[in-house]
Write a structure and sequence with these properties.
The structure is a single chain. With 754 residues, the protein is an alpha+beta fold. The strands form 5 sheets. Strands 1, 2, 3, 4, 5 and 6 form a 6-stranded mixed β-sheet that branches. It has a 5-stranded mixed β-sheet with strand order 12-16-14-15-13, with helices on both faces. The radius of gyration is 35 Å and the shape is extended.
Length: 754
C-alpha cells in the first residue's frame, strides 16, 4: 500500500490542501454518490457518514502526487461500485487506511459503523502490513494470512484488489526504485487472485500496469506496434463488424457486438513463451457477441462458421465445460477478410457479467434481479479447499506449496465413469483425481484405469480421459505419492495420513518399550486404565508433563521420554498402593537381557515403518549384532553394534540406548552398501548389475564416483537383501563375474577410522 508517513509518527507539518484540491476531493465524492443508485437512501447516508469520518481522519495528509489523501479511498470505493458491492464494503473501502494511518481504533469503528464494517477494515489493515519479500518463508506466511482473511469474507480481497488497482494506476507518482517491487508483487500475487476469482477486467488491467512499470521499453515498443496494426486493420475490423451485423439482422437475432483487443502483456507473454515475432501473433483482435440465451450462443456460432472458415483446433466450448472460476463462453477463431485470423466469443448477458466480474457477480446479481444461486457457487469450492488445507497444515511454507499450484489454474477436464466432468490442474495425476472425488477414495486407492486400460498411479491426466479408481480396504497412502501429486488437496491429505500413521506407530512402540521396562522392574503388565488405577496414571502424567496416556506412550516411542525412568516412577507409585515387584521376573529380565541395558529387548521384523529407522551410517541387516538409540523426537534408530557413530553416542548418551534384536522371520528386505572393484571396460556395470539381480538383490542406488578414466574403479551399490546369509550369497555371485576383482560389504568411514 502506498501511504504517507503515519499520523502517529508525528511527521513534519504538511501544507494544508489548496481550495482547488479540496474542491477536487468534494467533486470526487459527488462522482461516487452518482454511482450509488443501486443502494437505498439509508445505505447512501451510511456511506456518506463513512466518507465524512475518513475525510476528517486523513485531514492534512497528502499522497505522493500532492493530492489530498482522501482521493485514494474515494477512488477505491468507486472501483467497488463497478462491482456493485454492498454499503458495508464501500464503507470499508473509504475507511481502509483509517486504523493504520490515523490512529483510529477498531472499537471506535465498531461504535460508529458496526462490527461487520470494523471487521472488514481490520482485515484490510492486516493485509496492508504484508510485504512480500524474496524470502519464501516470509512470503508464504504473509500470503497465507491474506488468503485466510479472504476465505473468511471475500469482500476483503475485493476491496484490496480495488486498492491495488488504484495504486498501480498512480504508480508514476512513486519513486522509481519502488516500481519493480510493487509491480512484480502485483503480477505474481494480486493479478492471479483477480483471475482466480474471475475479475477479468481487473486481471487484465493489473497485468498491463505491472508490465508497463517492469518492462517500460518493451511496453512502449509493443504499444506502438499495436497502434500501427490497429490503424492498418481498422477497415478490415469495421468490415467484419458490418457483415456480422447484417447477418444477425437478417436472421432476426438481437445481439450486442463489442470489439476485444488482446492486452499488451498477453501479447508479450505469447511472443516470449512461443518465441514469436509480433507479426506472428494473429489473434490480437476479436469480437464478443452477447446474445439473449444459451441456444442463441450456438446459433451465432453456426452463423459465424457459415460466414468465415474456422481455424482447426481453435474451438473451445466453455459453456458446456466452464472454467474453474465460473467463466463461460464459446470461443472460435475464424479466417476473416485478407486472411487475418479473428477470435470470436459468444456468451449471454449473465455469462458476460460473470466473465468480467467473477465472484463480484454475487453482488451484481443481487443488484440486477436478486438471483444469487449461480453467484453463490462462484469461487466457493476454491475458498473451501483452502480452508480444508489450512486445517491440516500448520506450516506456512507447506501451505504456500499447496496454494501456489491452485492459484495458477491451467485445467484439464476429465470424466468419472458416470460421465461427471471434473476440472483438474494440468499435470494432475490419477491420485489427484482420487482425492478430488473424496479423501477416503484417495486414501484407499489401489489401482486405476484410464479409458478402460490399467495405468500406473503416477499417470498424468489428459483432456477427455475417463478415469476409474479401484480401491481396496487394505490400501493406504504411500509416501512416494508426494513425489508426483500436483494438487494441494492431495498433498495435504497424504501428509496428514502419514503423520497420523507415524503417531499411532510410535504409540505402539512406546507401549512395547514401557512394558519391557516394567518387566525389568518386576511387573508383568502395565496397570489398566480403570477407575482403581486412575489416580496412579494421573500422578504419572503430572510427573512426565504429558496430557494423556497416549501422548506419554508416543513420547516414549519417539525418544522424548526414557522408558526405564518412567517405569521406575510407575513402580514407586504402585508400591505406594501396596503392589510388590515379582523378584523372580526381575532377576530373569535383568540378567538375561542385553549386557548394557536392563529393560528387555524390542524385536524388529521390518514392519515398524516410521517409528523405527535403520541408521544410514552402518545400514544394519538381520544377522548383525545391533543396538537401538532413542534419538530425541526421531523414534528408535537402529545401529550395528560395531558402528563407530553408535559407539560415540553411547559414550556421550548411554541412557538413551535400548536393547533390540532381530525377529526370526523378518517381513521385508533391508538395505546395505557393497563396494565392487572392477577392471574398467565396456559393459562391466551391466554385468555386475545382472549378477546382483540373479542373486535376487534389488539395487536401490549406484555411485560410480568421479575418478575419471582409470584401469580399475570402485562401484558402490546400495542393495536390499534378506539377511547376512543372503548378502554372502550375493557377494559370491558378484565375485564370479568377469572383470570383478573384489566385492565386499562397505563399512562406514567412521567405523574404519575407529
Amino acid at each position: 500500500m502506498l501511504k504517507p508517513p503515519s499520523a502517529k509518527a508525528k511527521p513534519p507539518a504538511l501544507p494544508m490542501p489548496s481550495p482547488a484540491a479540496a474542491n477536487a476531493a468534494a467533486a470526487s465524492f459527488a462522482a461516487l454518490t452518482a454511482k450509488l443508485d443501486y443502494l437505498d437512501a439509508h445505505e447512501v447516508e451510511q456511506v456518506r457518514m463513512a466518507y465524512r469520518f475518513a475525510d476528517e481522519a486523513h485531514l492534512g495528509q497528502l499522497r505522493a502526487s500532492g493530492e489530498p489523501y482522501i482521493t485514494h479511498p474515494i477512488a477505491v470505493a468507486l472501483q467497488c461500485t463497478e462491482w456493485k458491492l454492498d454499503a458495508q464494503a464501500l464503507m470499508a473501502a473509504l475507511l481502509h487506511d483509517a486504523i493504520e494511518d490515523c490512529g483510529v481504533t477498531k472499537p471506535e469503528l465498531i461504535e460508529r459503523f458496526g462490527a461487520p464494517v470494523a471487521e472488514l477494515v481490520d482485515g484490510l489493515t492486516k493485509l496492508d502490513k504484508l510485504q512480500f519479500t524474496t524470502r519464501e518463508e516470509n512470503q508464504a506466511e504473509s500470503f497465507r494470512k491474506m488468503l485466510l482473511a479472504m476465505a473468511r469474507d471475500v469482500r476483503v480481497i475485493l476491496v484490496k484488489l480495488a486498492d491495488r488497482t488504484h495504486n498501480m494506476r498512480t504508480l508514476e507518482d512513486m519513486p522509481r526504485d519502488k516500481w519493480a517491487r510493487i509491480a512484480s508483487e502485483t503480477l505474481e500475487i494480486y493479478a492471479p487472485i483477480a483471475n482466480r476469482l474471475g475479475l477479468n477486467q481487473t486481471y487484465r488491467e493489473l497485468q498491463d500496469l505491472s508490465f508497463r512499470h517492469l518492462r517500460p521499453w518493451r511496453y512502449e515498443i509493443l504499444s506502438k506496434a499495436v497502434t500501427k496494426a490497429r490503424n492498418r486493420r481498422r477497415d478490415l475490423i469495421q468490415k467484419v463488424q458490418r457483415e456480422m451485423e447484417a447477418a444477425f439482422a437478417e436472421a432476426g437475432m438481437h445481439v450486442r457486438i463489442a470489439g476485444r483487443e488482446k492486452t499488451l502483456y498477453s501479447i508479450y507473454r505469447k511472443m516470449d513463451e512461443k518465441h514469436l515475432s509480433f507479426a506472428q501473433v494473429t489473434d490480437i483482435y476479436g469480437f464478443r457477441i452477447i446474445v439473449s440465451s444459451v441456444i442463441d450462443c450456438y446459433t451465432a456460432l453456426g452463423m459465424m462458421h457459415q460466414m468465415y472458415k474456422p481455424v482447426p483446433g481453435k474451438f473451445k466450448d466453455h459453456i458446456a465445460i466452464p472454467k474453474v472460476n465460473g467463466y463461460q463462453s464459446l470461443h472460435t477463431t475464424l479466417v476473416g477478410p485478407s486472411g487475418v485470423n479473428v477470435e470470436f466469443q459468444m456468451r449471454t448477458e449473465a455469462m458476460h457479467i460473470v466473465a468480467e466480474s467473477g465472484v463480484a457477480a454475487h453482488w451484481l446479481y443481487k443488484a440486477h434481479d436478486g438471483d444469487t444461486s449461480m453467484a453463490d457457487r462462484l469461487g466457493t469450492q476454491w475458498l473451501q479447499s483452502l480452508l480444508d488445507i489450512q486445517n491440516e497444515t500448520r506450516d506456512a511454507a507447506e501451505f504456500w506449496d499447496h496454494v501456489k499450484v491452485d492459484l495458477f489454474p491451467d485445467a484439464v477436464y476429465v470424466f468419472t465413469p458416470k460421465s461427471q466432468i471434473m476440472a483438474m490442474p494440468r499435470g494432475a495425476t490419477v491420485v489427484d483425481f482420487a482425492y478430488a472425488i473424496h479423501s477416503n477414495v484417495g486414501d484407499h486407492t489401489a489401482a486405476a484405469r484410464i479409458n478402460g486400460e490399467q495405468v500406473p498411479l503416477r499417470t498424468e491426466l489428459k483432456n477427455g480421459d475417463v478415469v476409474e479408481i479401484i480401491t481396496a480396504p487394505v490400501s493406504t497412502p504411500n509416501p512416494a505419492w508426494l513425489g508426483f501429486v500436483r494438487t494441494g488437496r492431495a498433498r495435504s491429505k497424504i501428509r496428514h495420513h502419514l503423520k497420523t500413521l507415524a503417531q499411532s506407530e510410535s504409540e505402539g512402540l512406546g507401549e512395547k518399550m514401557l512394558m519391557q521396562a516394567m518387566r525389568a522392574e518386576g511387573m508383568e503388565n502395565l496397570p489398566d486404565e480403570d477407575e482403581a488405577n486412575q489416580p496412579i496414571w494421573e500422578k504419572l502424567l503430572r510427573f512426565t508433563g504429558s496430557r494423556t496416556r497416549a501422548e506419554l506412550l508416543t513420547d516414549i516411542g519417539l525418544g522424548k521420554r526414557i522408558a526405564s525412568i518412567v517405569a521406575k516412577r510407575l513402580m514407586t507409585l504402585l508400591a505406594e498402593k501396596g503392589q510388590r515387584p515379582d523378584a523372580l521376573l526381575m532377576t530373569r529380565e535383568r540378567f538375561t537381557a542385553h549386557e548394557s541395558v536392563s529393560q528387555g529387548l524390542v524385536t524388529l521384523d521390518g514392519s515398524e515403518n516410521a517409528s523405527v529407522k535403520f541408521a544410514l551410517c552402518c545400514r544394519p541387516i538381520p544377522g548383525d549384532a545391533i543396538v537401538g538409540y532413542l534419538g530425541r523426537g526421531e523414534g528408535l534408530v537402529v545401529h550395528a553394534e560395531e558402528c563407530a557413530v553408535a559407539r560415540r553416542l553411547k559414550h556421550k548418551d548411554s541412557e538413551r540406548f535400548f536393547g533390540v534384536e532381530w525377529s526370526d522371520e523378518p517381513v521385508r528386505a533391508f538395505e546395505t552398501s557393497v563396494v565392487v572393484t572392477v577392471n574398467n571396460g565396456k559393459g562391466v556395470l551391466a554385468r555386475v548389475a545382472s549378477a546382483l539381480a540373479s542373486a535376487e538383490a534389488d539395487i536401490t542406488h549406484v555411485d560410480m564416483g568421479d575418478e575419471g578414466v582409470q584401469d580399475t574403479m570402485d562401484i558402490r551399490f546400495v542393495i536390499a537383501v534378506r539377511d547376512r546369509i543372503h548378502l554372502d550369497t550375493v557377494l559370491r555371485n558378484v565375485k564370479r563375474t568377469p572383470s570383478v576383482l573384489r566385492a565386499v560389504r562397505a563399512m562406514p568411514v567412521s567405523a574404519q577410522e575407529h
